[in-house]
Design a protein that fits this description.
This protein is of the alpha/beta class. It has three domains: 5-270, 2-enoyl-CoA Hydratase, Chain A, domain 1 (Alpha-Beta Complex); 305-478, 3-Layer(aba) Sandwich (Rossmann fold); 490-631 and 663-689, N-(1-d-carboxylethyl)-l-norvaline Dehydrogenase, domain 2, CATH 1.10.1040.50. Helix content is 49%, strand content 13%. The protein is built from 28 helices and 20 strands. Strands 13-12-11-14-15-16-17-18 form an eight-stranded mixed beta sheet, sandwiched between helices.
Length: 693
């Protein structure tokens, strides 16, 4: 018995229940592994033990993985001992003569998944909290407690590489389809599934001989390596290392394979990429626990929500709320827009069914949480209103003046504006809700973007901020609290980058060169392609707002105006900076459409690395201005918001972390050189000038 577990033995069945005290999560640290090993050893000393079952007492965690503090802070010798310890304990479980079963409910990730892989059988709950996977490559390392070795033997090399290289997390049904688990049921029925599997004895698994042989493995590794290289651009050493270790695991002994696991992690754990990726993980965890108010403030419960505006953003927000079982009124004055918004909600649920997020029955039931309305309806029961109408300040004023008269005095009024000043709404005397009016900026597409900016004004009540934080977390999103300046934090930093990319394109630089430079840098999408995806009309509207606030630093390239004036809005019209065509169901792009729209390309274009540095430095410069002005409350907030709001290269740790790695004197020198050649947009901020060195 250990305080980290409870254990029982009855009728030949030994049950170990994970229940780490004073923690919402079960994790593996050296003490936990030692206690587990002692329990496993006690099973071997029980001749009457016929089975060993692992369970969790937590509501949403089976085992979340290894203690990352050990990985970050251990000496090379201690790290090696930690890896050996985990491999030894799980190997003992795999070698037991009794039948072993992992009853998985909640997050079963990293070391938790490796424990499950060491068992004979695995069953999983169909709960939304259940996620199974090996996400170590997302942290700059690879599975090293046997996961890289056992997974390809269980489900075949191609499927194992797909999961490990992508760091994917699967719901129970997805895991069963791949053969990662043997049964799926409601949590209360997992015991019944366990009984059925125990009655079968030890399993007989397929050998996957067609893929798991040296010749096939060589071919699979080359194909998977090409795909991985196209995605990672060689920026993630863990992916290359995992590709080698997992591919070699299908031949030779398990012992040799686990030795290769340990050797790879010893090297990867100290790499700059792993250090930054682990920091990003901690920033994510910080966002889940952050409190804005220094004093204890109890947030209010948000049970019913209204979304005003049934366009792309409004319908996206409504669908996400409905999927989290929150009743939501979707309101628009135009019946046609309400109908279109409802169809959009249903399409989003249909897409979720295709991706096995919901069953058709679940999607149908959840979609009923959206109540459409094109007429004035009572709103006294609404706890939170999210306005998602067009980006026009006067229209928003009218909406909020109306809402102020039809909602309770304690109802929170939020705007989803991406750039307009929230304070001008909060300080409107006809609205009269200055302490309860806030910005809730969701990013498009809502279903894919994790970040939500919570925009505060000088008048915002601490209780409203804490309620907004709790609400965003309830939705499964990641919040960041930002100050009220045009563009807030993410768009404020991103816009100079997009404008400069457009300016280079306008000057004749090749669009593909510009985008490829930033893809190589580690961005998920090039800046010009991003403009097309967002919509050139939308981007131009935001850019005009920013230029009005910050002047020529945000001067808009003429080509963007010309394209929008001619109806070239990007992907949604099929034409923008790139031409988007449908070809056999796939979208292809080239920039032939607009080559005629700008001048002759410069004779000597720089290397892609110089292009990337130039564009990234603009983000750094604007980020530091946000720190000066209090738009961002910390350097960590800047890096966190840019990674989860724009996909800024995670392995670089965000714009501030990247600048620190370069060194502030180097950043200052490079910006001053660019400012001398290119203009004041590159002039270093006072914040950068004040950094030591």
């Amino acid at each position: 018995m250990s305080s980290l577990f409870t254990s029982t033995f009855s009728d030949g069945r030994f049950t170990i229940t994970f229940d780490r005290p004073d923690s919402a999560a079960n994790i593996f640290d050296p003490a936990t592994l030692q206690a587990l090993e002692e329990l496993v050893d006690s099973v071997t000393r029980l001749p009457s033990a016929k089975s060993l079952v692992f369970r969790t007492a937590k509501d949403s965690i089976f085992v979340a993985g290894a203690d990352l503090n050990v990985l970050e802070n251990a000496s090379p010798e201690d790290l090696e001992m930690f890896l050996i310890q985990g491999q030894r304990v799980f190997q003992k479980i795999a070698g037991l003569s009794c039948i072993t079963v992992a009853e998985i409910h909640g997050a079963c990730l990293g070391g938790g998944c490796e424990l499950a892989l060491a068992c004979d059988w695995r069953v999983a709950s169909d709960d939304r909290s259940t996620k199974i996977g090996l996400p170590e490559t997302q942290l700059g390392i690879l599975p090293a407690w046997g996961g890289s070795s056992r997974l390809p033997r269980l489900i075949g090399l191609p499927a194992a590489l797909d999961l490990i290289l992508g760091g994917k997390q699967l719901a129970g049904r997805q895991a069963k389809k791949l053969g990662l688990v043997d049964g799926v049921a409601a949590r209360e029925r997992l015991g019944t599934l366990t009984d059925q599997l125990l009655a079968k004895g030890k399993p007989k698994r397929p050998s996957h001989w067609l893929t798991n042989n040296p010749l096939s493995a060589l071919v699979i590794r080359r194909v998977a390596g090409g795909k991985a290289q196209a995605r990672s651009r060689g920026n993630y050493p863990a992916i290359d290392a995992a590709l080698q270790v997992v591919s070699q695991a299908v031949s030779g002994s398990l012992t040799d394979s686990m030795t290769r696991e340990r050797a790879a992690v010893r090297i990867l754990a100290t790499s700059p990429e792993a250090r930054q990726l682990l920091r990003v993980f901690h920033l994510q965890e910080r966002a889940r626990k952050f409190h804005f108010s220094p004093d204890p403030v109890t947030p209010n419960t948000v049970s019913r929500v209204a979304v005003i505006g049934a366009g792309v953003m409004g319908s996206g927000i409504a669908q996400w709320l409905a999927a989290r079982k929150i009743p939501v009124l979707l309101r628009d004055i135009d019946p046609a827009r309400v109908g279109a918004g409802l169809r959009s909600v249903k399409q989003l649920f249909s897409d979720a069914v295709k991706h096995r997020v919901f069953t058709e029955t679940e999607a149908h039931r959840l979609s009923g949480n959206v109540i459409p309305s094109a007429t004035v309806v009572p709103m006294q029961s609404i706890d939170l209103v999210i306005e998602a109408a067009v980006e026009d300040l006067e229209i928003k004023r009218k909406i909020f003046r109306d809402l102020a008269g039809r909602t309770r005095a304690d109802t929170i009024l939020a705007t989803n504006t991406s750039a307009l000043p929230v304070s001008q709404l909060a300080e409107d005397s006809e609205i009269g809700r200055r302490d309860r009016l806030i910005g809730l900026h969701f990013f498009n597409p809502v279903a894919r973007m994790q970040l939500v900016e919570i925009v505060t004004t000088p008048h915002t009540s601490p209780e409203v901020v804490e309620t907004a934080l709790a609400f965003v977390r309830k939705l499964g999103k990641l919040p960041v609290v930002v100050g009220d300046r045009p563009g807030f934090l993410v768009n404020r930093i991103l816009m100079p980058y997009l404008i400069e990319a457009g300016r280079l394109f306008d000057a004749g630089w090749d669009a593909k060169l510009i985008d490829e430079a930033m893809l190589d840098f580690g961005m998920p999408m090039g800046p010009l392609r991003l403009l097309d995806e967002v919509g050139l009309d939308v981007a131009l509207h935001v850019a005009h707002t920013m230029q009005g606030a910050f002047g020529d630093r945000f001067a808009i390239p003429q080509i963007l105006d010309r394209l929008v004036q001619n109806g070239f809005f990007g992907r949604k019209t099929g034409e923008g900076i790139f031409e988007h065509k449908k070809s056999k169901g796939k979208t292809v792009s080239d920039n032939a459409l607009v080559r005629r729209a700008h001048g002759t390309a410069p004779a000597n274009l720089p290397e892609k690395t110089a292009v990337a540095e130039r564009l990234a430095l603009l983000m750094v410069n604007e980020a530091t201005r946000c720190l000066e002005e209090g738009v961002a409350h910390s350097e960590d907030d800047v890096d966190f918001a840019m990674i989860f709001g724009t996909g800024f290269a995670p392995f670089r740790g965000g714009p501030i972390a990247w600048a620190k790695a370069l060194g502030w004197p180097v950043v200052r020198e490079k910006l001053e050189a660019l400012a001398a050649r290119e203009g004041e947009a590159f002039t270093p901020s006072d914040w950068i000038r004040s950094q030591p060195g």
